[in-house]
Specification:
By secondary structure, this protein is an alpha/beta fold. Helix content is about 30%, strand content about 20%. It has a single domain, classed as 3-Layer(aba) Sandwich (Rossmann fold), CATH 3.40.50. Strands 4-1-7-8 form a four-stranded parallel β-sheet. The longest helix is centred in the middle third of the chain and has 14 residues. It binds magnesium ion.
Length: about 150
Amino acid sequence: MKILLLDIDYTTFHESTPRPFLKEFLERVTGQYNVYFFTAARHQRITEVCRILYHQLKLSDDIVQKMNRYSLSRDNCPMISHRTDLGGYIDVKCLRKAAEVLGVDISEILLIDDAPIYDNPDRDYRIQAPGFSGNPEDKYLLTLLL
Ligand SMILES: [Mg+2]
């Protein structure tokens, strides 16, 4: 099975609010992909949102445990520094590092992320998500299922 990596902040969650249809989305795609989170935050953030998946969205223990165990954060997958147009640096995710950590070829991975692509050479393996800021009417995840 291919791996589907989901960004957390502004893609699947806003703070502790899950994006609408996240439960339906996860229940559907876990039959087709190994689904894990990929966040530039610490692993603690993964644990927080997994608790919400389990307690609030009532996703099955199987799905949540696997996600919590194999998800990628800056604690187990190094970020890379990207120089912005303004001259500062920001940490961005590197899909090649993710593939290395997961022990698969990059072509086996798909990432859904709201972050700008910059000059990322791995754009073929990404789906650009519109940012989620807590709007309860948001239907983006539903449109992915149709
Ligand atoms: Mg994000």
